Amino acid sequence: MNTRLQEQQRQWGRVVWEKPDALPAGSYQTITLRYRAGSLGIDEHGGIRVSFRFVSDFGTLQLSDPGADNYVTASTRPGLRLELSYVSKGNVRPYQKTLFVHVMDGPLWEGDEIKIVIGDRAGGSRGWRLQSFVEEFFPLRVEADPFGAHDYVLLPEQPGFEICAGAPHRYHLHVPSLLRAGEPFALRVKCEDVWGNPLRHLAERPTLAMLREDAAGQSVPVRVNPRHDRGVLELRIGIHLADVVVDGDDLLGDGVNIAARVEGQAAPGSVALTQAVFDQVKRTAQLTFEEIGEVALKNISEPFRLYRVVDEIENHSYITGTLAAPKAEQPNVSEAREPNSIAVLPFANISNDPEQDYLADGMSEDLITGLAKFKDLFVVSRNASFAYRDRNVDPREVGKELGVNYCLEGSVRKLGSRIRITGQLISTKNGEHVWADRHDCSLDDLFDVQDEIVGSIVSTVVGRMELDAAASARRKKPKDMAAYDCLMRGLEFHRLGGVTQTHAEEAVAWFDRALEKDPEYGRAHAWRACSMASLAEWTGNPKHWDECFAAGKRGIELDDNDAECHRIAGSLSLCTHEFDRAAYHFQRALELNPNHAYIVGRTGELHVFLGEGEKALEMQRRAKRLDPFLPEYCRELEAVANYVLERYQETTAVVAQLPRLTRRAAAYNVAATVHLGGAEEIARTVEALLRIDPAFTIAKLIAGEYYKDAVYKDRLVGDLVRAGLPE
Question: Can you give the pTM of this predicted structure?
Answer without folding.
Answer: 0.51
